[in-house]
Amino acid sequence: MTDMKPWAFELEEYIREGEPDRARRAELWQVAIGLQDVDGLTPSQYLLDTAKEHIEGELSIDQVQSRIAAYYQQRDERTQAELESEEADVVSSRIAEILGERAFTFSPSELKSIHGRLFKGLLKEAGAYRRYNITKNEWVLKGDTVRYSSWNIVPETLEYDFEKEGAFSYQGLSKLEVTRHIAAFASGIWQIHPFCEGNTRTTAVFIIKYLNAMGLEIGNGPFADHSWYFRNALVRANYTNLDQDVHETNRYLEAFFENALLGASHDLKNRYLHIDWVGDVNATGDGEMHIPQVAPQVTPQVLRLLDVLGDKELSLRQIAEALGLSDRKNIMRNYVVPALDSGRVVRTVPDKPNSRFQKYRKA
Fold it and tell me: 105-293: which CATH topology?
């Protein structure tokens, strides 16, 4: 794991030990603590020490939360730093709790419930949709703001996005296509910004739970080490300024999720996301940073498929005939899907993977 913070090194020891239950709890805490960075919050040493006791099985998560509550109740007068640490400690413990639960329902109500559980007692409007419009000055936008959804249509807009996602079929998609679709969905619900504060942490927890519910394991590294990048990538995915020739792009968010879901190793640097970033030798002509891609291994089957395709667009039946094979499931599994994952082959009808008009061609 790169760019690891000191607290993450301490928790990483439990993962390296290899004891499954401890490793799993340590991963949850890494994500929970790492996500506080989206708002510039730093958990206390007390939280870290208490988390270790939970990882080692000496405390339940309820006992952890009771200890944290008691710890801050002893302090009648607190500095601003202590107030921020309190929020970081409390929310971290709640994220660890929620991510450790298997229960999940894909709905706006679940998103709302997560926000309420995370920020109860910390935000006056925890678990409630905002009732005013908001702007936020963003460093990556030189002080400009994303245009968030109007407060009076937040429920309807969320319902629309969830209905659209619920009707979407992942069947037949390559892992890369799944990753990019998830990035787009996360970007959409974040742009709505349904809550007064805490939207990024709520969105992250919801997306992790959603991915786990679909049987997808998400690496803890990106959220533990690069949560501020995650937020900035969401900003860039939802910002356009035609006068400055800046356009919304999912490329940075896709890089984040490719690291998390595919084990890619994109360089997640926040400076690459700044709209004035001019890049270096890896910069593209439009002044944006080109994110290096990890070249997947090319199997003999993929090479053979590329040879068969040439400069043509072929259906699965035509590919089977050209290969001299009859088992189309085998062709999809060993030829087409790996080629799609590698980015060397694309669908001619990308929005409908199972379309009867579907064909494949070289990228």
Answer: Fic-like fold (1.10.3290)
